[in-house]
User: Which sequence fits this backbone?
């Protein structure tokens, strides 16, 4: 029987969201944009538009699904107060500059360190030619610059690079000013602007030219109709999950739903196909003038072949080269990517960033002037990589790090939120799901139940066993999971601490080994339930939490809890807690010894450095680099000791699901475990609660908008 599959969704398309915000702000009337990306890039654009007097809401994190823009016409923006900061967004600054060229006002555009290195002449050149005035304020050719717009002339622009940003900036300027324009690009770039403008009532003519592709807007209308659309999932974001599925070998079990499959964006697919990881597009439909489908990687061998891609293919996969390079690192043979010189001026110099990082983790990679040569390997890959303030570099290496045989740390994972908020959480979820699924299909024989074990399940109590290393997030997660599921929470560590405290009170120099069952009986350790939370009683009275956490307890608890008599003594007490609807049992041998029949077993782990950081924060110490190293070292030695001791060693049960929490906050960890438990209970584990896209009018008449 095939195990159950998983369907996931990715956030809305960045390119489409950016265009919808700017064009919505130029339209006559209210636009409604469903499914918009709420990543850092569009949020920066939205903020800039608000400073230009545009009423725009619904872009904040956690806001309702629809963004509303109150458009007041083509040239209705007002002089901004202060500088417009587009942060990391190249699309934002270039497209907005185009639109500003037609507004009778002056604005200063700027951005972050990465944006300050990206070339702006490619847009300021044609905009000046049309009549806008531009002054660079610090260094020539880069932000910050001041732009004063107004009346413009139409132009015919022959671009040297295939760039949708350049093309869109010119089209937005021409439409804003009401003048005809023609753009000739050496190769066809993404056509979201053209589609959206057509849907708003602009006549756009395009087609193959002698030397590339030409786009013409002969006569823009005096007003744009507002947008009523739903943004499809971003293909560039989906690509990371497809790549992960190809590397993990989970074949056609993982679907990424409702992704934009505009043919000017899906150039990665033929390359993947040549590598041996075909992608099936199913359920094709059209939303907002854009083709949409559900993507599934076919085949489950996990074996990839090297690939060669050249300049003709690059524009259609311009943002996917980082993930392609990572796949090449795991393919058989040497892959060659050429004609990709544009990558040097993205959010980072992606050619250099990829080569540097690949080498850092042990892959042979050679930097070419306009691309890369990468020798695939199946050796373990490990090391720390740098994101270079580039979301796609961070995510590409994150995908590789989430596969077997890799231990990769990313210096700045947070940068993913530029285009893919929730990326790390989703990646951890699919990974956890796949672990569960592969265990589900190859479940090892269950340990025989010892006589007298209160069987989880047979007493009607669902037991969730959460084990893991120190600092992996066990306690917080277990407590929160218990709260969400309405189960009791067994904190086994508190029992070991209570025993330690009791023994210390009796004899402050506890002689290990000299503890007898009678000594332990005398402590009279018991559990008292306060609703679902547990408190420990000893010799008839409640032990305060503070006493359990006292320094003198900390220093010997691991010695005491390694004593056979102690473990034996507490075993029945712990097992007896499996009563009522459910129990979340947290500790170090829950899934192996105490509840070998638990319905769900989860083993939490995280990179020692991250665990060290959490420990330091818990103790109120600043997590600086030296301290982190020191603490990580301590944790590693403790792991080694704990996992090699003969009695109740810290090991992951053969049928436990490993959850790597390195990149997860407590909320994400809790959600992942809850979903996992629910998934195991129901055997189908689904992620993606987003409501179905609302029925909206396409900006382009349907059908016919699909392939071009
Ligand atoms: C984009 C176009 C591409 C792409 C970028 C988004 C757009 O850049 O790399 O992420 O939305 O127009 P170029 O137009 O510079 O190639």
Assistant:
């Amino acid at each position: 029987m095939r195990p159950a599959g998983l369907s996931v969704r990715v956030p809305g398309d960045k390119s489409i969201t950016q265009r919808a915000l700017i064009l919505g702000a130029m339209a006559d009337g209210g636009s409604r944009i469903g499914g918009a990306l709420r990543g850092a890039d569009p949020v920066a654009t939205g903020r800039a538009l608000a400073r230009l007097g545009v009423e725009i809401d619904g872009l904040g994190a956690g806001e309702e699904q629809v963004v509303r823009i109150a458009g007041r016409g083509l040239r209705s923006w007002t002089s901004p107060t202060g500088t417009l900061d587009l942060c990391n967004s190249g699309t934002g600054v270039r497209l907005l500059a185009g639109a500003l060229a037609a507004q009778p006002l002056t604005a200063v555009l700027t951005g972050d360190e990465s944006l300050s290195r990206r070339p702006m002449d490619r847009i300021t050149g044609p905009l000046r030619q049309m009549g806008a005035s531009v002054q660079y304020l610090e260094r020539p050719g880069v932000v910050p610059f001041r732009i004063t717009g107004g009346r413009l002339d139409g132009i015919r622009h022959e671009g040297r690079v295939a760039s949708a940003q350049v093309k869109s900036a010119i089209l937005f300027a021409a439409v804003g000013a009401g003048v005809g324009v023609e753009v000739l690009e050496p190769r066809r770039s993404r056509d979201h602007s053209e589609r959206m403008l057509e849907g708003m009532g602009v006549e756009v003519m395009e087609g193959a030219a002698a030397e590339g592709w030409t786009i013409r807007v002969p006569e823009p209308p005096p007003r744009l109709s507002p947008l009523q659309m739903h943004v499809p999932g971003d293909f560039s974001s989906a690509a990371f999950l497809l790549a992960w599925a190809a590397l993990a070998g989970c074949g056609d079990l993982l679907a990424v739903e409702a992704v934009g499959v505009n043919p000017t964006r899906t150039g990665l697919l033929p390359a993947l196909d040549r590598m041996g990881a075909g992608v099936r597009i199913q359920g094709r439909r059209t939303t907002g003038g854009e083709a949409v489908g559900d993507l599934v990687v076919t085949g489950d061998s996990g074996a990839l072949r090297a690939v060669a891609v050249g300049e003709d293919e690059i524009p259609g996969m311009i943002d996917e080269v980082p993930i392609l390079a990572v796949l090449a690192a795991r393919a058989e043979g040497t892959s060659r990517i050429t004609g990709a010189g544009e990558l040097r001026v993205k959010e980072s110099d992606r050619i250099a960033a990829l080569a540097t990082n690949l080498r850092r983790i042990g892959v042979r990679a050679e930097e070419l002037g306009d691309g890369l040569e990468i020798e695939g390997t199946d050796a373990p890959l490990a090391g720390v990589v740098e994101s270079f303030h580039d979301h796609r570099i961070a995510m590409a290496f994150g995908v590789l790090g989430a596969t077997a045989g890799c231990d990769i740390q990313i210096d700045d994972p947070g940068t993913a939120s530029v285009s893919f908020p929730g990326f790390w959480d989703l990646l951890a979820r699919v990974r956890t799901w796949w672990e569960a699924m592969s265990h589900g299909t190859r479940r090892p024989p269950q340990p025989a139940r010892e006589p007298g074990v209160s069987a989880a399940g047979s007493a009607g109590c669902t037991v969730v066993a959460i084990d893991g290393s120190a600092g992996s997030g066990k306690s917080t997660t277990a407590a929160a999971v218990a709260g969400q599921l309405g189960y009791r929470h067994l904190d086994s560590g508190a029992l070991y601490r209570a025993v330690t405290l009791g023994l210390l009170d009796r004899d402050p120099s506890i002689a290990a080994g000299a503890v007898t069952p009678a000594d332990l009986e005398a402590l009279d350790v018991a559990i008292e339930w306060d609703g679902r939370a547990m408190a420990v009683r000893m010799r008839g009275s409640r032990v305060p939490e503070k006493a359990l956490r006292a320094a003198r307890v900390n220093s010997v608890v691991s010695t005491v809890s390694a004593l056979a008599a102690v473990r034996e003594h507490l075993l029945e007490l712990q097992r007896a807690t499996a009563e009522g609807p459910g129990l979340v049992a947290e500790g170090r041998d829950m899934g192996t010894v105490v509840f070998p029949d638990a319905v769900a077993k989860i083993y939490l782990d995280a990179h020692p450095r991250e665990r060290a950081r959490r420990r330091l924060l818990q103790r109120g110490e600043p997590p600086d680099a030296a301290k982190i190293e020191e603490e990580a070292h301590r944790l590693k030695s403790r792991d080694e000791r704990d996992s090699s001791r003969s009695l109740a060693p810290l090991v992951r049960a053969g049928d436990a699901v490993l959850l790597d929490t390195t990149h997860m906050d407590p909320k994400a960890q809790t959600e992942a475990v809850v979903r996992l438990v629910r998934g195991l209970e129901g055997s189908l584990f689904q992620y993606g609660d987003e409501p179905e896209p609302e029925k909206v009018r396409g900006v382009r008449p349907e059908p016919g908008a699909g392939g071009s």
